[in-house]
Structures are given as C-alpha cells and as structure tokens.
Amino acid sequence: MLQQTVNGIALGATYSLLGLGVTLIWGVLRVLNFAYSQFIVWGAFGTLIAIENHVPTVLAVLIGMAVAGVVAVFVDMTVMAFMRRRGTSEFALVVATIGVYYVLASVAQERSKSQIETFPIGGFPHGSIHLGLNRTRLGRATRTVAYSAPTAELLGVNSRAIFALAVFVSGCLAALAGIFNAADSSTLSYSDGDQLLVVAFAVIVLGGMGSVKGAVIGGLALGLVQVYTTLYVSGVFSSAITYLLIVAVLIVKPNGLFGVREEARV
C-alpha cells in the first residue's frame, strides 16, 4: 500500500508538471496550445541525444528543458505573435497550434524513423512553481500580465518579456514531464506527447482553469486515483474510472476544484 502511494505521488508529480505548463500558457495567453504535446517530446529527445553523447544526466535534463523552452518561444514569437497582431480569433489560434503540432511531430518522427527508442533511467530533480508564481516579484508580474496585459504595462511590467518567459517556462515544464515519463517507461516515441496532452487537459479541468494550486493538486489526485484503480480494480479500466471521477467532480463543481468564475475584463 505504501509503495503504491509513493508510485501514485510520483505519477501525479509528472501530471502536475503537465498541468502547470498548460496553466501557465492559459493564464497569460488564454490559448490551449496543442503543440504543447510536441514540446514534451522535443524536450525528452533533447535529453536523450545529450545522454547518448555522454553528457552528465543533470546537464542532459537541463539541455532538454532548454530545447523545449526555445522551441516553445520560437513558435510563439513567429506563428502565434503574428496571428495575435492581426487580431486573429482564439479559435484560429488553436487551429494554428494544431498545424504547428503536425510540423513538429513530422520532424520528430523523421528523426526517430518512427521507431520506439530506449530511454535510460535516472534520477531527476523537481522544483516548485507555485512558490515562484506567488512569492517572487517575477511571479507577481506574470500573474498581473495574466489578468490584463494593458494594466500590466501601466504598472511598468514589460508584458512582452513576461509572455516570452511564461512560454519558455511552460516549454521547460513540458520537457521535464516528458523526461520523467520516458524514464519511467524506459522508452521514447515521437507520439508520446499525445496521451500526455490529454492528461494535461484533464488535470487543469479537474483543478480549475488557470489555478496553479489546482494544477498541482489535480495532477497528484489523478496519479493516485490511477494507481489505486489499477491495484484494486483493473488496469484496463483505470483511465475510464479516473475520467468518470473527473466528470463527477465537474457535476458538483463546474469550474473545477479550485477554479473560479471570471468576471468580464475591462
């Protein structure tokens, strides 16, 4: 029982990272980025390539995180920023992220030759994002931009820099989650991010859209429920039961565990 609880927390920590990355992007840009699944994959591949070139594990992880962060910023500063300047609708932005997803997936597929690669197992460090967003000056600036970019500018916050930083950190979190997932399974595929993106969306819906605390607790809860369901019911139905429980929570709390109904921004 204790070991399964530890396993559930470990799985939930990966889910929390996924939820935090998506939450950060949603909080600042108000867009669900489907290319996020490939940030997960590119970060993990960056780490794998570094390890294959005999780079120490911790440094390889940092390289993978940097790769995903840079890719995320590049996508935002080119495709997304161009569309935002033209006043493109949110729906069109989401469709654009799907297009970016296919481009990145094609590159990753070509690199791996559509093969599942072996990923070395190792220990990786965790960090605290909730503390950073709530207690530091930079974190408060990020939350100000998330509320209103024009208001942030009036308060002297460089919203463009905060946008770029939020996107970069989101990419880093995606990479870290992808690395944990690959290390746990000892394998890596160009399509690994697809299922993890579904998990990320489930986490933020359960915890509440835009809630950092909700992403952390929602991820941990999801991991524990999946492990306990596999142990006491069946691994075949673990995902189905987990998502049914999310539906049950949303019936009681439509905005998620820690989500709040937003008033119109003026």
Summarize the structure.
This protein is mainly alpha-helical.
Walk me through this protein's architecture:
The protein has 266 residues and is mainly alpha-helical. 75% of the residues lie in helices and 2% in strands. It is built from 11 helices and 2 strands, in the order ααααβααααβααα. It has a two-stranded antiparallel ribbon with strand order 1-2. Helix 1 (2-29) packs antiparallel against helix 10 (212-232), helix 5 (129-135) packs across helix 6 and helix 10 crosses helix 11. It starts with a helix and ends in a 14-residue tail after the last helix.
CATH architecture term: Orthogonal Bundle
- The strand count comes to 2
| CATH structural fold name | ABC transporter involved in vitamin B12 uptake, BtuC
How many structural domains in the coordinates?
A: 1
Relative strand content: under 5%
Average pLDDT taken over every residue: 81
* Parts with pLDDT < 50 across at least 5 consecutive residues: 125-134, 141-149
* Succession of helices and strands: HHHHEHHHHEHHH
The largest sheet has its strands arranged as: 1-2
Label the overall shape: globular
Give the SSE map.
Layout: H1 2-29, H2 36-52, H3 57-85, H4 90-112, E1 117-118, H5 129-135, H6 137-147, H7 149-154, H8 159-185, E2 187-188, H9 192-207, H10 212-232, H11 238-252
